[in-house]
Write the structure tokens for this entry.
Amino acid sequence: MNKKNNKNKKCNCDSCKEMRTLDRIDRVSRWVLGTVKWTYDFGYIISSGALSDKNHPIEKFKNLKDDEKKYLINTCEKAYKPFKKYLLFYICYLFGAYFQQCKRHKIEFKFEKDFLMIQLKSFRKMIETFYYSPNKKTNLWMKLFDNLFGKKDLNINKNFFLALFPPLKNEQLELIVDWFIKYKENPTVENIFYSAAHYFHMELDENSSFNNIKTDNALDKHLFKLTKKDLKGFNKSILQAEIPIRNSFVYLALTTHEKLKKLFIEYEANDVLIKKIISIGPDISYQIESLKN
Ligand SMILES: [Zn+2]
């Protein structure tokens, strides 16, 4: 019964064993990172005008007025800031996506610490790898952002991954997982959890309308909205039919953040760093207004 004696013992239930051996758990972590990075890439960096015909490539950028240059550099340099404080959101979102993956592969999903920690560690490991030794061929890394504005030190891609990788110790990760387990039936937590499951399902299921968009136009795919049919079967999901599914991270994060923060403070976890992370920084928004002349 002594917790300390069990510290290094791994749970060997079927679910945990399957989780540890599956390479498809990477698929889930990658998907979660991808949905959030999409908002960063398109909603922030590209929306700033950094790659527009007027400002890109470098020959055109060089001809801009100084204040225009300064605006673009400054905007892209700071774009990572709103992504830091949604730590609790990422947790609920991540586990929801894993829940759906388990369902697809007939693995029992458990609201248990060991089981959930495998998922959280996989997620953190992936972010860490993207920060230190990224595979630049994946679509999670925007090559166009490397040396943007002819500057090598902007680290537009890296800044994003660092924002999602606060320096938390194992005990702090466990604390967040305990918090999640305690509030797993809270409506806000459930909304995020099942919305992620829903979206992940839409993206993987061969029959979903998301996968049957008959267009090669990337923009159409980006602006895809769910139909009434797609909303069936996920009662606790709060994905909307009116807003493009690619923007769901923004509205989910915006509408739930204060409630999650309150739940964490109510939990009376005296963790100064986590409280700080979830309390400071600008809110996420759909996009930065394009450079006005
Ligand atoms: Zn287990």
